[in-house]
Amino acid sequence: MRKIYMAGMSHKVAEIAVREKFYIPMDVKTEALGLSPFDELLILATCNRTEVYVASDREIAEAELVQYVCKLAGQRFEDFAKFFYFKAGDDVAHHVMNVCAGLDSVAVGEDQILHQIGRAYETAHNLHATGNSLNKLFQGAIHTTKRIKTETNLSKLSCNIPFLAMKQVQRTFDDLENRSVYIVGLGEMGSLMLKYVQEYTTNIFASSRTFANAEKFADVLTPVKLEDRYKVLGKCDVVVLCSICQEPLVTKDEFEKAVAECHSERSAKHEVEESRHLVIDLGSPRNAEASIGEIPGVQYVCVDDLEKIVSENRRLRMVELEAAQKILKEGLDEFLQWYRMDEVSKDIRVHADRMVATANEESEKLLRSMPDLPENERERIRMMYERFAKKMANDYLYKVKAGNSPEDVKVFLKCLEASDE
Fold this sequence. Notes:
Elements: E1 3-10, H1 16-19, H2 26-34, E2 40-45, E3 49-56, H3 62-73, H4 77-80, E4 85-88, H5 90-100, H6 112-126, H7 132-151, H8 154-157, H9 161-172, E5 181-184, H10 188-198, E6 204-207, H11 211-215, E7 222-223, H12 229-233, E8 238-241, H13 252-268, E9 277-281, E10 298-302, H14 303-306, H15 314-368, H16 375-403, H17 406-420
């Protein structure tokens, strides 16, 4: 039977300083999926988790899979093995269902992880890295999550990462109407952040890796070329960083210079209000050097800090969470039923093939006793024996499988084996 395994780390076991070291670029993922050493492989990498899922006909040890993830990220196994969790069999299915539904996220019930898993699965599937086991598992998890979104209000009450970031902004500044906000990165997270910010202020700046992407939003913000970011950073009250980068886009030294220049300009204009800057870093790897929080007047917040904010709609979310858990269990049970029956199906096929082979042997014995029988009659006899064997297999094997649990079918097959002896 092909068994499923996974190894990974998340916000629950490793802080962002560790997680960001395991950022796996798309080109590395694509190459890994194309040259997979496993029967099936899927790689999930988000700002809060890096996880590798495997299905294999051979046993996979924890150390082997963790070493594989470390190699992908270019990190030493000895330094980071303690941050990983490892699961096998049913535990993998349970974990995937919870992760996909957002029940393992910082913001319980958030929608973003569903899209991330969908993209990870699509990438692996298109590269032919997945097979029957991972296809069924991830298709089931995605379907179950969509049911939860449709049949419960959990996602309406949830707090995704940009939502939590907006809450942090509102805690820092009572009134945003006269404040300026600068968003760096206009991907999925940055675009969602923009939607929240638009509700409170029109003084918005934004940069993207591709300037044309920022220009698409010119009707609601001021596009800024990424190389000109420091001209805006020091002037804006709120900076939200959500770009993908290998090296920090904002360094302490350059940001400190930008802040100092801004203060000088304000002093020259006799503006006495103390300047405050809130920098929210949603990137993983982080987009800024954490030390910028040491600059006077600058508050630095990363993804891990946002977890402390989650307290809203708690009672209502618990009610919806119960409904979501019920749907999740149904999805999990459906997959596990298939997963266990898949092993039984293989055993049944073996027995069915054995029955047909036995029928063919018996028909040949009969035909040897009738050497003068015409060939067309001989073929009819062979077909009759084989058809009878297949009917017996259907009545006594496949029908038994359809109407009983995998455990009961296994007992039945063992009885058949015992009778053969």
